[in-house]
Amino acid sequence: MEPTGSDRIFGRLKRLSDLKAGRHKGRFYRNSLMLILLIASIPGLITGIVMYQQVVGRMETEFNRMHQNQIENRARNVDDQLAYLEMNLSHWAFEPRFGNALRTLDFVYYFNETQEIVTTLYVLQGSHPLIKSAQLYLQEPKPILFNRDYTELNDDAKVQAYDRYLSMGNHVYWTDWVSSINRDLAPSTNDSLLHMDAGNALVLVHKIPGESINPFGALIITLDNEKVASLLKTLTPYDEGLTFLMDQEGNTLVTGNPGTAGETSAFEQQLKEEVALHADSRSFLFRYEDQTYSVSYGSLSRIDSDWTYVSAAPLTSVTSPVKLVSKIIVIASAGSLMLGLLLSWLASRRIYSPVARMLHLLTPGRNDTTSTDAKLDEFELLEQQWNELTSRSVTAHRQLQEQLPHLRDSFVLQLVQGHLYAYNEQDLQERMRHLGFELEGQQYLLMQMYFTGYEQLQGRFGSQDTGLVTFAAVNITQEVAKNYFRQISVMNFHDLSSAMLVIAPQDEPVKSQALLWGQELVEVIGRTLKMKVTLMISRPAASLQELPGRFVEMEQAVAYRSVEEGSQILDLEDEACFRRNEAASYPLGLERELLQVVRLGKQAEAERVLEQFMSEITRTGSTEFQVQQMMLQLLGSIQHMMLQTGVTPYKLFGGSNMYERLSGIREPVQMRQWMMNEVFTPYIQEIELRSQEPLKLVVERTMLYIDTHYRSSDISLENCADEEQMTPYALSKAFKQVSGINFIDYLTRVRMDAAKQLLRETTMKINDVAAAVGYQHSYFNRIFKKQEGVTPSQYRDQWFGQ
């Protein structure tokens, strides 16, 4: 419908009215802006002048007081950090693991105790950020150093360096002398504990045992100089100041400005002299090189000495910014007055048009009747930012929707596992509603799935792919459940098991639907993954707080599932699912046969009998609980047999709780593999090692005989075999098995070592050297060149040439 003449006239009048309104708004904006600039500029002028003339003059005294209070608070923090180090080290020094037992402990034989000490030092080193390294030095039974590993010290200079920690200071003391194991020079004989070393690193020493008056070792903590300097630098509020720690003799221990030590040494010496002059005052003003410093100092009482901290902060760091700000305020206020006069003329033309555009952008339905000049559009940037923010909002919303399923499943997992016990029912429902669940008039049903038969998939998946198989099974579970339930949440436990929460209306037969869903799931998993499924269905719950209890019931009831091959659907409300007509019996005959073959070290026979044992206890009708109980009984019988044969299970299994490990295995195939690999095989290997002990003694006597009679030219394998009343073949085989080298190779090595020593240390002729080590001259030259790459004469010339 076309507009009439009256409509056109009315439209023109409306546009004219809008234009006049726009002009009135332009004048209103211009006058308002001018008034605002005048009001803001005059107080700024007054404030800048007052700040410049009066405030700066009073700041020095006030800053000195504030500096003293601030430094005292920060100094207490530094003192607390050092006190914590002393207390923490004393705590570890009194630990039983650092007691007198270390004096006689064989660290090579008791490897676990050695590893535990190294681990403890790692823990001690990481217990505080200031600690750079933690070491344990033992003087007895022999010099030993624990740092990142176990080291026996054979260098006398290193031993003397570490012995010094035991000879100087009290039972606990601070020093800044660092004993480096790469240092060739002997330590200084200076009796002072501090300021002894150029490295100047703080070291805290606690002799052990902590309660003993005759210590034989020491715990040594070396602090990180850079971190200590950073901590000390907090005593200076500004980067231009200086802070340091010094001992009672006035020696500098640590400085907060390590990179400018040469530049600040004179200033530091002047500060020390001024501190001595102001002994009765904790703060004072100090003038140095046309700058005024606020100096604060105090004492830090350490366990064996008193330290003094000194902090000097330049007052110009405070007053200079204030002077600059006051000048800026005066200039800005004067400029604002000039700008107000200029903008009063340009306001109507430069302000209203961008404001109108902004209003149009924020309210798209508004009719724009004013003309817009593109060159004067100063709000284009605002428009771009608005569009960018809108785009980001859409992206963030999309990402939230993508992550929402993971958040839902994570919350449900915490709920059913009992981690949200502190929340009441109302809070839990409110949180689940935020995650998108509908809970009004709903009931809850928990189901747990165990996927068995993984051992049959070893050709398709490796032993480390259980998480991948579980992920695939969980995806199948979700896809099948979508056809039966409207609200679900599937939890992946990554260990061939998962759980699912179903939320359904109270009037819906959710249990019958779960049974139908379980039958389809069993078929799909068997067809797709070639695995079996044990499905546990809980009792329905009317509230969210009942779900953790239902989950515990399912975990306890799964032990009564049948271990026979095949999938199972177990309803906790159906007692017939857990009732077994036949009680499993323990095969004592197979146990005795199994113990006998294991005692004799027959590994292949043991594996065969163990398989028969597992077949007997996993016959039709046996539950997982019964199988685990009989396997635990077998484990107890095996450990009893080990004790009878002189093998300690605790040492053989490295202190592991074998019963706990066996209880965590569910499938019979995995139980059999674990029993064979973790129990039988280590015991059989231990028995074989013990059977080789007599041969070891024979080889040791033979090696000693060679070391004593190598000079004789008629020494041979036959002669040594006659000495041991063995055949040469048996002795040769035993020698290779125990020592790792052949008989003749060992004899040649002993003779070559003796010959090289004679060539280096004597002037004997080559013929005499050959005879002295049991060789003829011609054969000696040939065998020496073959072993060493040079002739005996060349070897001697090279040695004396060096």
Layout: helices, strands, pairs:
Blueprint: H1 5-93, H2 111-126, E1 131-138, E2 144-146, E3 150-152, H3 156-167, E4 172-175, E5 203-208, E6 217-223, H4 225-233, E7 242-246, E8 252-255, H5 261-277, E9 283-288, E10 291-301, E11 306-314, H6 316-350, H7 352-362, H8 380-416, H9 425-434, E12 442-452, H10 466-481, E13 487-492, E14 497-505, H11 510-528, E15 532-537, H12 547-557, E16 568-571, H13 588-599, H14 603-617, H15 624-644, H16 649-652, H17 658-663, H18 668-691, H19 693-709, H20 717-724, H21 728-739, H22 743-761, H23 766-772, H24 777-788, H25 792-801
Parallel strand pairs: 15-16
Antiparallel strand pairs: 1-2, 1-6, 2-3, 4-5, 5-6, 7-8, 7-11, 9-10, 10-11, 12-14, 12-15, 13-14
Helix pairs in contact: 1-6, 10-11, 13-14, 14-18, 15-18, 19-21, 20-21
What does this structure look like?
By secondary structure, the chain is α+β, with helices and mostly antiparallel strands. 56% of the residues lie in helices and 13% in strands. The strands form three sheets. It has a six-stranded antiparallel beta sheet, sandwiched between helices. The protein has a five-stranded antiparallel beta sheet with strand order 8-7-11-10-9, sandwiched between helices. The termini are far apart. 24% of the residues are buried. Residues 1-7, 19-26, 180-191 and 366-378 have low confidence and may be disordered.
